[in-house]
Amino acid sequence: MNLYSKKQKWKIALLIFALLLVSASLFLSNKIVSKVESREQERAEQWAGTIQKKVELVQLTNTTFSQLRDLERGKISLWIDATKEVSKESPLGVVTNYDFPLKIIKANKDIPVILLDGDQNVSGNINLDFDTSDIRAVHPVATKQEIRQFFNDSLVLLASQWEENNPPFTIEIYAGLFMTYYYFDSKAILKLEIERDSLISAFNRDLINNDGLIPVLLIDSDTKEIIGNNIDEYIVDSSNLDQYISQFELANEPILIDFNNEKTSTLYYDDSTELKQLQYFPYIQFMVIGLFALIGYLIFSTFRKAEQNQVWAGMAKETAHQLGTPLSSLMAWVQLLETQGVDSSVTMEMQKDVDRLEKVTDRFSKIGSGAKLDSQNLGETVENVISYLRPRISDKVEVTINVDELAIAKHNASLIEWVVENICKNAVDAMKGVGHLEINVVKSDNWVFIDIKDNGKGIPSKQLKTIFEPGFSTKSRGWGLGLSLVKRIVKEYHKGNVVVLESQINVGTVFRVSIPIENKS
Questions:
Q1: Cβ neighbours of residue 37 under 8 Å, at least 6 residues apart?
Q2: Is 296 exposed, middle or buried (0-12, 13-18, 19+ CB in 10 A)?
Q3: At what angle do helices 273-339 and 3-87 cross, to 10 degrees?
Q4: How many Å apart are CA 404 and CA 512, to the nearest integer?
Q5: For residues 45 and 214, what is the distance between their CA atoms, to the nearest angstrom?
Q6: Domain ranges for the chain
Q7: 3-state secondary structure of 501
């Protein structure tokens, strides 16, 4: 029966099931992350399209303004011609009809005009949104003449400012008399300009500087000028622009925006903070779950080991107790046979078996309790157990033993004999009662090694890690506890180690038991 093999199969099956669960969870998490990433990319593309539409709208508005200004300039030119026509002197005896030019003059109700002569003196004005009463409010104690002068100076200054946006008209009214007409945009155009500026401001605020959007960086493709960004963590300027561009290019492919005015811009964008956190969340989750699983495993493993130790100790002590009564009876029967003159060789062999049973009882009684370790020759202990085993194993098994006389180490002779006996019996079974068994006891600097070599069938490499586990057995009967006891005795009671030093199929196996010279328990 191989209980450990079945347990291993269950462990492997559970491990595979856990890996499948982890893989499925990671697959679903990555699928969700991929969907979120695709949606963010769609949002970035929609955002780029919105920018393009907004800019096209602004460009259309600017074109409309240019056309409106051309129309107003034409209206002012017509208005000036009408004014000039009305100002002409009619020939004597001819009555001139001024209805049409007067109609044109009266039609101008919203374009402000200032008329200056050649000496920059104010000759007239129309459609201004202030007058001398506004000057009076600023200079309440000034005279009328001073108020008029302040007003005229203001008009001259205002005319010079208008000239920057709208070229004035200079007309020869009479021979040698030139008048200059300065004009500005009408109130309708000014109102539209305010609306346009508000539109551009909203564009900058709602799109480029939108904190709720994924991190974006809008760059002029030709000049590399930063048009806008919403990266608040650091200031983006020419010193670190290339760094951000490289970072964003690694995250997502940039989007090219054509503004249809021979200018293009490039939109670089990064994954949102939430998406980055979502990408790492499954791994953090599994690390936490794995940590809890590890802690739980260690706790339950400790409890299980403690429970096993209690079972081992209880079973061993009960075995020792049960052996005590028949052992006492056997000792009495041997003594009786000796008094009745039975052949001494018979009673001698019986006494050896009785002594052996006493040792077995002593071994079981030590399980679960502290074993006394004595500093003595480990080679003698091994020789004692081999001398007992020789007549009890097949005659076809050749046994050789080599002992270092200086191999002195602290050990419990009874327990070490049990260790060597178990390994040797397994070796004889592996050789099927025919072969060579070699035992070497060698001393090194800090250890004494007991090497037990056989030329049996060997141990498959896949079983080397499991042979010392409870329940492992290659025989059809048995509980698979021999090597498990060997490991427990060597490691727990002697602080040593037991390993398969070498094993080859159909060649043989070498077991090594290592006992420290000075036990530090």
A1: 271, 275
A2: exposed
A3: 170
A4: 15
A5: 12
A6: 208-273, 370-516
A7: strand
Q: Residue 218 has which token pair? A: 């809008």
- Let me know: does 389 contact 426? Beta carbons within 8 Å: no
The span from the CA of 197 to the CA of 58, in Å, is 9
Maximum average pLDDT range among 101-115, 156-170, 211-225, 245-259: 156-170
What is the average pLDDT across 265-290?
Answer: 76
Among the listed residues 417, 508, 492, the one whose alpha carbon sits nearest the alpha carbon of residue 500? 508
**Residue 209 φ then ψ, to 5°:** -100, 25
Contact 271, 251 (CB under 8 A): yes
How many CA atoms lie less than 13 Å away from 236 in the CB half-sphere? 22
Helix/strand number for the chain, H first, E second: 12, 15
Q: Are 154 and 131 in contact (CB under 8 A)?
A: no
Measured distance CA(189)–CA(192) in Å, rounded: 5
Q: What is the DSSP letter of 463?
A: G
Angle of helix 413-430 relative to helix 378-389, nearest 10 degrees? 50
Amino acid at 393: I
- Please tell me the distance from the alpha carbon of residue 205 to that of residue 201, in angstroms, as a whole number: 6
pTM of the model: 0.44
Give the Å distances, CA to CA, from 137 to 125, 132, 133, 147, 154.
20, 9, 6, 10, 14
How far apart CA 152 and CA 128 sit, in angstroms, is 13
293, 299, 305, 310 alpha-carbon torsion, rounded to 10° = -140
Distances 401 to 50, 157, 450, 492 between C-alpha atoms, Å: 92, 124, 10, 26
- Residue 519: band (very low, low, confident or very high) from pLDDT cuts 50, 70, 90: low
Cβ-proximal residues to 453 (8 Å cutoff; 6+ apart), any chain: 437, 438, 439, 440, 508, 509, 510, 511
Q: Give the total residue count for the chain.
A: 521
CA distance 249 to 5: 54
CATH architecture assigned to 370-516: 2-Layer Sandwich (3.30)
How far apart, in Å, are the Cα atoms of 189 and each of 70, 101, 143, 160, 370?
12, 25, 36, 20, 105
**Predicted confidence (pLDDT) per residue in 291-300, tens digit:** 877 887 788 7
Q: Are strands 216-220 and 177-183 parallel, antiparallel or unpaired?
A: unpaired
Query: What is the spatial distance between Cα 85 and Cα 96, in angstroms, rounded to a whole number?
Result: 10
What is the rounded radius of gyration, in angstroms, for the C-alpha atoms of the chain? 54
